[in-house]
Design brief:
The protein has 433 residues and is of the alpha/beta class. Helix content is 45%, strand content 15%.
């Protein structure tokens, strides 16, 4: 009998390899929820660990094949990857169980003829082991090289190491809320952020006591909601790429007098937002639209453009990004981001403020977008984010320790994974000149 966790992990990894499905969504499916808590945890470990190390695993596998250039079927490659990952990176997993289940997974599928090859490769590793490889080896070479150019070797090493560790769980919790049965510690910089040490975070979320949201993502929304000397209180707020709704929830919390319109190109994702934020429905409107083609009048006091991007700042929790993204994709991403920012600026009121953000580490999606758009659309300026962080410190949103950690930020916000214990985000604040 194949262990339920290995069977579930194999199905998910095969789906990620053969479709555009995301591991995060698949790990929250009903099939995974039906597993025991122990099997759910192991399934998550197997899926995310295999994806994080897949490039390095493939190099090990190729070196042990009779013909290293042979093209493996998705089924055989998936069975080998999950098996090699367990043998090299999970100390407490018995080798005989790994070999048996990996071979059985192949025998039960359309590629049963590959069972002997899978067995032979895994037995070689079980007997002799193999080098695990440095974290950089689990990233595309082009990605590591460009990070080294932009951030330096030391920071690049920190990013790569961060990407290879299980992503921690950070919650959005009001300071006066005590979540029973959940041990947490303070966030890195926000007073409302708590990092889970142990316990079932899902129970707190289901009880409405907390919301899972990376701390850098929370910070972007806090910056978007920060007071401005140009206006008394924002009355109309536009969130142009709103789903899944975490930042919208913070805007609702921090701007209690504002009417907020959440726009997203996906009706399904907006419907999920309605369920998440239903209690605030009297102040929240939803609109299905492509943010790149919005035709706006200059009536919005606040606009948040958290645009679609490569996501290279989130690879600790979305490891398949490194397997799907090509450097040639960045110009296409940039063109869409420029279109969204241009469309949104047309809607900014005279005294309004716009925040542009991504979860990307790539300059093409960040500074270069701001430079291009402000050159083509005159009459706007960048507001240094350092001054806004000082405001957030004065109002208690940022902790003193958190402000010190963010001390290096000037015109833009940038959180670098591994340097800070969070996802990699970029944010720029723009106003009329």
């Amino acid at each position: 009998m194949i262990a339920p966790a290995r069977q579930a992990a194999y199905r998910i990894l095969l789906q990620v390899a053969t479709t555009d499905a995301h591991s995060d969504d698949l790990l929250r499916s009903r099939d995974v929820d039906a597993l025991s808590a122990q099997d759910r945890n192991l399934t998550t470990t197997l899926v995310l660990g295999t994806l994080r190390w897949q490039l390095a695993l493939d190099a090990v596998i190729r070196g042990l094949l009779a013909r290293p250039d042979a093209k493996l079927s998705p089924e055989a490659a998936t069975a080998l990857r999950i098996g090699v990952y367990q043998l090299l990176y999970l100390d407490r997993v018995p080798a005989h169980a790994v070999l048996n289940d990996s071979v059985e997974l192949i025998k039960r599928g359309p590629e049963r003829g590959a069972a002997g090859m899978v067995n032979a490769v895994l037995r070689k590793i079980a007997r002799a082991g193999a080098p695990q490889g440095p974290p950089a080896a689990a990233h595309p070479a082009w990605m590591v090289e460009r990070w080294a150019r932009h951030y330096g070797r030391e920071a690049t090493g920190a990013i790569c190491r961060w990407d290879q560790e299980p992503a921690g769980i950070t919650l959005r919790i009001a300071p006066d809320i005590d979540v029973t049965g959940l041990e947490t510690e303070s966030g890195a910089f926000l007073s409302c952020a708590r990092r889970v040490v142990r316990g079932d975070a899902g129970a707190a979320v289901r009880a409405g006591q907390a919301r899972i949201q990376d701390e850098a993502s929370q910070l972007v929304a806090e910056i978007a909601a920060a007071p401005s000397s140009r206006e008394a209180q924002p009355a109309k707020v536009l969130d142009t790429c709103a789903a899944p709704g975490g930042k919208t929830a913070i805007l609702l919390e921090r701007l209690p007098g504002a009417q907020i319109t959440a726009v997203d190109v996906s009706r399904k994702r907006l419907d999920a937002m309605r369920k998440l934020l239903g209690a605030a429905s009297d102040r929240l409107a939803f609109e299905v639209a492509d943010a790149a083609h919005l035709e706006l009048r200059p009536e919005w006091d606040r606009i948040l453009c958290d645009v679609p991007c490569s996501g290279t700042g989130t690879m600790a929790r979305n490891p398949e990004i490194r397997l799907r993204l090509a450097e040639s994709d960045l110009p296409r991403q940039q063109a869409r981001q420029i279109a969204i920012l241009r469309a949104a600026l047309a809607g900014l009121a005279t005294n309004g403020r716009l925040v542009y953000s991504t979860c990307s580490l790539e300059p093409e999606e960040n500074e270069d977008v701001i430079t291009t758009v402000l050159r083509e659309v005159p009459g706007f300026r960048v507001v240094p984010v350092a001054a806004i962080l000082d405001q957030l410190l004065a109002t208690g949103v940022l902790t003193p320790e958190g402000r010190e950690r963010l001390r290096s930020n000037g015109d833009f916000l940038r959180t670098t994974p591994g340097i800070l214990p969070c996802d990699g985000f970029f944010a720029a604040v723009i106003e009329h000149a």
